[in-house]
């Protein structure tokens, strides 16, 4: 699980552990993971500094990837940098997962992480996207 220190990522890790899964949690900060999950049984923690880092070692022995990591918008952050990091980071983890022979990849995300939270967005401002499942 990438982004395991995030709000949703930490809840996904907690639910997987509660269901008895062994989880490898990836985040920028292992100490933060340790603070969120002290004494967690079945949890392996790995530090991955950026979304475009090398995940080769972290993916060894993994059956499935749940990619939840993302850079969040903050004041002064160029939005193109955040979008590029999210896009390239997702491509990076997908490519490395495929190279590692992982057949199950779940990618989550929200366009809200790319925008200024002080601006009100109205649903009709955004077209519905149709996602085709590739087989």
Automatic annotation (TrEMBL):
Pfam families: NAD_binding_10. GO terms for molecular function: aldehyde dehydrogenase (NAD+) activity. Transmembrane segments: none annotated. One of its GO terms (cellular component) is cytoplasm. Coiled coil: none annotated. Gene3D superfamilies: NAD(P)-binding Rossmann-like Domain. Residues 3-111 form the NAD(P)-binding domain. PANTHER family: NAD(P)-BINDING DOMAIN-CONTAINING PROTEIN-RELATED, PROTEIN YEEZ. This is NAD(P)-binding domain-containing protein. It comes from Lentinula detonsa. The lineage of its organism: Eukaryota, Fungi, Dikarya, Basidiomycota, Agaricomycotina.
């Amino acid at each position: 699980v990438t982004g395991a220190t995030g709000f949703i990522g930490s809840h996904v890790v907690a639910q997987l552990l509660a269901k008895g899964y062994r989880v490898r949690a990836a985040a920028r900060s292992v100490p933060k993971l340790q603070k969120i999950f002290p004494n967690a049984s079945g949890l392996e923690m790995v530090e991955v500094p950026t979304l475009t880092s090398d995940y080769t070692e972290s993916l060894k022995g993994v059956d499935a990837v749940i990619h939840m990591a993302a850079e969040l918008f903050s004041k002064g952050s160029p939005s193109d940098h955040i979008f590029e990091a999210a896009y390239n980071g997702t491509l990076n983890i997908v490519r490395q997962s495929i190279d590692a022979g992982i057949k199950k990849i779940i990618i989550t995300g929200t366009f809200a992480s790319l925008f200024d939270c002080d601006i009100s967005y109205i649903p009709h401002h955004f077209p519905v996207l149709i996602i085709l499942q590739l087989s």
